[in-house]
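Backbones bend. Shown next:

***
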Amino acid sequence: MALLRPLTMITFENKGASMTAPPSLHHAARHGIGFREITDQDKMFLLSLYRSTREAELAQVDWSDEEKQAFCKMQFEAQHSHYQQHYPDALWLMIEQAQAPIGRLYLERWPNEHRIIDIALTPDARGRGIGTDLLRDLQNAAAVDGARGIGIHVEKANPAMALYHRLGFAKREDKGVYDLLFWAPTEADQPASDPAGDQVNTASY
């Protein structure tokens, strides 16, 4: 019997968020980065992306590739269900470079905080400054929006933790395996004007 079954449980409900513009891109635009809404046709890419974020863990277990894939699929579906339940008004965005998918950004905007639910890039897109510039653009967007800051849960062992600290994120709460990080804009981060005219239309770095 095959361990894998179709990703029938995965759907993307954008609800009211589909009417909300994605964050403006300025720093990331120099990499040819853009956003578009995720659709059900992106499920296999997203599963592959999710697995890429777990490869270091999977390398430590004596499982067949089929067993690893089944495990990742189960975890991916559970994660997706959790996100959809707890962040009903989120933006579910594909990160594209030259119109090819290279990652995902899940973002919910609250009145006092922008919450990065998840951000991840494919292995070949990491280490090239794309993640850094995306985060800078998200910081700018939060400052423009008048939000008090940006929150994100980051695994303590995530190599990107140093990047978050470098960009001014600080631990707000210890969540066990995760740290809840928070970045608050300073007066210097407040832009002189809304740069929406430069918008590009369209957690592993």
Summary: The first strand starts at residue 33 and ends at 37. The helical segments are 43-52, 55-58, 65-86, 130-145, 161-166.
